[in-house]
Amino acid sequence: MAVVGTIARAHGNRGQVIVNPETDFPAERFQAGAVVFMEDAGSIRTLHVVAMRMQRDRPVIAFDGVESMDGAEALAGRELRVPVERLAALPQDTFYHHDLVGCRVETRGGDDVGIVSRVDGTAGGSRLIVQGRRGDVEVPLVADICTAIDIAAKRIVIEPPQGLLDLNER
């Protein structure tokens, strides 16, 4: 399952929630009739979207069966997920964050940098957080630096500007 958003908080007193989207397609992903999933006490809970509107680039969603502020507040902080096979196809040379997590990062010269632990940012400015030997290393996810990304092999080759790896290690 892939994360498509996180419930930020309740909105109003009728059970609606504000979602921080983790998708480039929030209007389509969270439209009325959509189905998303979340973990609830060790099991998977299915949530049906009955209404959605956008407010300041974030969806305000009403789920079937969540009709009070208390019910909505109980969902705050929960991740919303969908099966990976339901994700939209992406244009060439673009990747879902979950595809990059776990990839081994190495320099063009073959030096091991580490493993991608997460991706921060948005499509307009993302960076790989690479768990290295001496701490986390932040690598901008741009074509000039990340010169080869092979999702099938779980491998990313980078050509970092001088000092980038030293500057970012903590």
Contiguous runs where pLDDT drops below 50 for at least 5 residues = none
Helicity range? 10-25%
Write out the strand line-up for the largest beta sheet, numbering strands in chain order. Answer: 3-4-5-2-1-6
The tally of domains stands at 2
Strand content: over 45%
Q: Per the principal axes of the C-alpha atoms, what is the gross shape? A: elongated
| Average pLDDT over all residues | 89
Helical segment tally? Answer: 4
Topology pattern, helix = H, strand = E: EEHEEEHEHEEEEEEH
Distance between the termini: 32 Å
- CATH architect. name of the largest domain: Beta Barrel
Structural class: mainly beta
CATH fourth-tier homologous superfamily of the largest domain = RimM
Largest sheet: 6 strands, antiparallel
Number of strands: 12
Give the radius of gyration. 19 Å
Question: Within the CATH hierarchy, at the fold level, what is the topology of the largest domain?
Answer: Elongation Factor Tu (Ef-tu), domain 3
Which class of the largest domain in CATH terms?
A: Mainly Beta
